[in-house]
Amino acid sequence: MRSESTTHRSQAPVRLIVAGGGSGGHISPAIAVIRELQRRRPVDILWVGSGNEFERTAASSAHASYAAIKTGKLRRYVSLETPIDAVRIPIGAVQAWRILGRWKPDIVLSTGGFVSVPTVVAARARRVPILTHEQTAHIGLATRINARFADVVALSFERSRSLVSAPRGRVVVTGNPIRPAVLGGSRDAALRRFELPGALPLVYITGGAQGASAINQIVADALDALLGYVESIHQCGPATVHDDIDLLRDRASRLPSQLRERYRVVETVGDEIGDVYAAASLVVGRAGAGTVNELSALSIPAILVPLPGAEEQRQNALQLADIGAAVVIDQDDLTPTRLTNEIRLLVENPARLREMADAARGQSQGNAAARIADELERLIGDRSG
Length: 385
Prior knowledge:
6-stranded parallel beta sheet, 7-stranded parallel beta sheet, Rossmann fold, 46% helix, 2 domains, alpha/beta, elongated
C-alpha cells in the first residue's frame, strides 16, 4: 500500500496562487506553508503581489513564479492618497481576474495585506477555493473583506474568533506559521558569525524586514551606555529604505574598542536568524505578527515598541505583555535613557528573564504550517471530488 505522500508524488502538481505581501509579517507565513506543501506533494506556485522587492525575493526562494498587480491601501481614515488608491484597487482586481484565467489555479492562499484583496475577490468570482490567514490578534480590514469570500478563514489566536465573520466558510484556529530558519539555531554559530566575545548577555535589536528608523535613532544615542553591560546584534534595515546603517556604524566607530567589539549592526538578517535567536537573552523590536509569534515559539523575553497607529501591533504586543512575557513601550515614551534602563533591569535579573521566557512558552501554537496545509489539501480534495 502506498503512503499518502507517495500517492501525492505520483499526482499532477497542485496549482497554488499565493496572494499577500507588503511586509515580512505577511510573507513569512506564506513561505512556511509553501515549504510544508512542497514537502508533501508537487506544487506549481504563482505569487501575486504588489511588486515589492521583498515579495519577489520570497517568491524566488520558494521556487515560485511572480506576478505584480496594481494595489491600493485600504484606509479607515482621510488621506490625500485615497482617491488614487480607489482607482488602483479595481484595476488590480481586473488584473487578478486575468491572471487567474490564464493560470487556472486549484486553490488560492491569502496571507493578507491590502495586496491580497483583488486576488481573493477574483478567485471567488472564478469559483476557486480560498483560504485566508490572519497573523495578528487584531483583525485587519483586508482580512475582514477577504473573510467574506473565503472558504476557510484561518486565525492565529482563539481570542480573534469572535472578531471575524465568514458567511461563506469555516473559521479555524491554526496558529501563525513560523519560518523554518528560526528553529534549531546555535548560539556558538551566532557568536562566530558576528565575531562577538559572548561574555555578556546578548540583545537582538530589530525593526522587522525594513527596520524601524525611530528605534535605530534611539539606539544610536544609547550605544555608549548600552554596551556597558550587554552585547548586541542590531538589524537596522536596508540602506535602500533609510540611511540609518551609516549613522550607526559612525557612532560605533567612535566607541572605545572594548565597547565597539560588543556591537554588530547589519542591514538584514537571513537564514542565520535561528542562530541569532539562540544567542539572544532579550529581543528589542516592533510587534509585527511574525516577530511576536517567533518570540513566543522560542520563549524569548522582549521589549516591544509597537508601530504608532498600528492597532494590530499594539494588540500583538499586549498579547505578550498581559502574560508577563514582554515589556511594552510606546514610541513616544522611548528615549535612550528609558531603553538602557529597561534593558539593564532585565539582563541583570536572570530570574525575571526566566519568568518571561516561561510565560511566552505555549503562546504559539505548534505545527501551524501543517494545520494550514491540511486545510488547503482538504479544500483541494473537496474541489477534485
